[in-house]
Amino acid sequence: MGSYLLRRTFPASRDRVYEFFVDPVAFSHWFVVPGFSTPAERVRIDPRPGGEIHAVMVSDADATQVPFVVGFGDLEPAEKVVLHPGEDERVTITLTDVPEGTELAYRYEGPAAEPADVAAADVMLDRIAEHA
């Protein structure tokens, strides 16, 4: 088991940044990996503790579909989101007001904490910045 912490500051309100975790269209903009897209029409979100995100990534090359489910833990609107992307994984996102907008702290705990995993999460957060 490992962990890491990433931080980003976005020139947007906490409400806007929170949308990226509970709104299908906003979620589809950031939850992708290189060579794939996550079409908004293939995202269903039940944003409540115990709820789930059901989505499908689609390969840009050959349209291969990769369905996935992410569970919700705690949710405090515009303040905190806890996600469980896998059985032994926990991602805690906290949102804080700062003079520049909103600071997002992304803390991962689980087995996928190698440098390549951190880099992938970093790219996803960059995608939030592109759309915030």
Short description:
With 132 residues, the protein is α+β, with helices and mostly antiparallel strands. It has one domain: START domain (Alpha-D-Glucose-1,6-Bisphosphate, Chain A, domain 4, 2-Layer Sandwich).
Describe this protein's structure:
The chain has 132 residues and is an alpha+beta fold. The protein has a single domain, classed as 2-Layer Sandwich (Alpha-D-Glucose-1,6-Bisphosphate, Chain A, domain 4). It has 3 helices and 8 strands. The chain has helices at residues 14-22, 24-30, 115-131; strands at residues 2-10, 36-37, 44-45, 52-59, 65-76, 80-84, 90-98, 101-110. Strands 1, 2, 3, 4, 5, 6, 7 and 8 form an 8-stranded antiparallel sheet that branches. Strand 6 and strand 7 form a beta hairpin. Helix 1 (14-22) packs across helix 2. The longest helix has 17 residues, at 115-131. The protein is globular. The protein starts with a strand and ends with a helix. The model has no long low-confidence stretch (mean pLDDT 96).
